[in-house]
Structures are given as C-alpha cells and as structure tokens.
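RPN2_C domain-containing protein: structure, please.
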Amino acid sequence: MLVEHFNSHVRYGAAMALGIACAGTGYKEAVSLLEPLLSAKENYVRQGAVIALSFIYVQQTDVSCPKVGEFRKQLTKMTTEKGEDSMAKFGAIIAQGILDIGGRNMTIALHNRSGTTDMGGVVGMMVFQQFWYWHSMVPFISLACKPTCLIALTKDLQMPKIEFKCNARASLFAYPPPLESKKKEEHEKVETAVLSITHKKKPVKKGGEEKMEVDEEPKPAKDEEKKATLPAFMCSASSRKAVPDNEPPTHTIENPARVVRLQLKTLSMMENSRYKPVKSVTYGGIIMLLDKTPDQKAELVVQVSAMDNQQTEVQQAVAGGTTLDPAAPEKQPHSAFEIDLKDY
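Here you go.
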C-alpha cells in the first residue's frame, strides 16, 4: 500500500488521493488506512492525514460514523497545543473548516448529480492541493463544494408546502451537536480529620446524651442528581447507551430541506401526495413537480423578500444611531484588475 510507503512524500500523496476519492462517504476502510498517519514523524504527513480524514468525515454524524467526535477533539487538541508543529497545526485548522464547510450544508464532490465530471470542481481541488506553495490557494476548495439540499418547485417556479418521507432515523443525518464550554468543577468541602487524641483533651459535657453510631446513607453525587433531572439527550454518551432508543425508524422533512448524500436513497414521496415529481427525488437538488389538482389553490412556502431584509437593516442602523438611506443605490463590485504571481 502506498500509505505505508517508506517515502514520506508518497504517503502524503496517497493520503490526499484517498481522501478525495472517498470524500463524504465515511468509509471505515479508508479511515483505518489514514489513522496511522496521524502519528507519523513527518509534520507534512500528519497535515495531509488530517485534511484527508476531514474530506471523508464531511457531513458524518456520531451515529453514521462513531469516530467523528474523537476526530474533532483531536483537531481541537492539535490547534491548541503549544508543542504541536506549525505545519500540522495549519492542517488541523484547514480540516476543521472542511468539516463545517458551508455551514455543514455542503459536501465535497468532483462530479455533478447526473454523474458527469464537474470541471470547475476538479480545477478548484487541483489548485487547493498547491496550498503548500501559497496559503491563499486554500479558498479554491469552495469550487469543489456542492450544496446538499432538496428543493421542489412547480411549473411557475414556486415552492409548495410539501413533505417527503425519509425511511431512516432522523439522528442518522442530523447536525453535529454544538461544542459545549467547559464548566468549572465544584470541589466538595472535605471535613478535617479529627484525631483520637483530641477527644481525650476535650472535656465531655455532663448530662450529654451519647448518640448511637449509625452508618449514614451515602448521598448521591451531584453529577448523578443532574442526570436524574436532565432529559436523556443531555446525559453523557455512556448513559445514553443504557436508555432504550425510542426514536421512530422513519421521519418526514419539509420543502425545502437539507438532505445529505447518504440520505437521498432513503427519500420517497408521501402517500396520496398532491404532487408528482418529474424525476425521482433520490436525485436531490431542484426537483420539478406536476400538480395533480391544478384547479385547487396551492399552499406555498412563505418567502422573505429582499426589501424586508433591507428594512431590517435600516431599523438596526437607526437603533445604532447611524443614518442609512433605503433609496440609496446598491454598492457596485470592485472593478476587474490583473495580478502577476511573479511579484509574490
């Protein structure tokens, strides 16, 4: 295997090729090949390993790929440790951005939904691979990103209110849980040990009733008390496994929806639906619908106009004490300019 080659540059290239080929799949075999490279001697090999693993872990959850949480913690450790090499730390920062690319609503793909090669994505990935020469080439990875969504439209290009059935559990494709800030540990007060010699020195009160020594019941720890009052989803991972899973095997999603690549094959139309898709909903993206009852009024998704957003900006500006003319023309983009890479 090239990932076990004696030449470190070959191992780096094999890791990146494996990550690109298995992007967004979560293949366990590919992960098992890349994990040993995280402890390589060469800093650039570790850099390539974390970037390649981030390609594979895109839009993966702890349910579909249990090692995602550990990988995120490892990236945080690499970026915060002072003793970590700068090249490996830079790779960990890029990997964190790839994991959350597009607000976790996009994936890495070099082909279109129809299966044809996307030349823009291929060029973007190729330029991104040259970030070792110039760090400003990292944003070219955005050309290889594809939105993972499902948008159903009518013949008038309107979004009707419609639901789709997903024949899988909702937690399998849910957003990763947000990072929790570390809480300060409350140290319990410990009673000072009383030596037997001190009892002899202290005079015993006359007429005092001697209490019988009784073993006190152990008080539950604070963490256990919190677990008893908190809902199941807020407990630790070990306690969640003990709780029986009552999650339904299917769920519904509304139009428009975030649909990851692995979720597409589980989608289907609801029974007795008013609309019929022109092509299967398993393709994802924009799906055109045929209305079976065009005489009836369709219920559409409420859309927010750009004017409403502009009025909101004006209100925020007035509240901040600044003046903003709503009738002012929009700002024009910067004029085109030429750049010569030889100057850099």
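Notes: The beta strands are 106-108, 145-147, 149-153, 163-166, 251-254, 257-258, 267-269, 275-277, 285-291.
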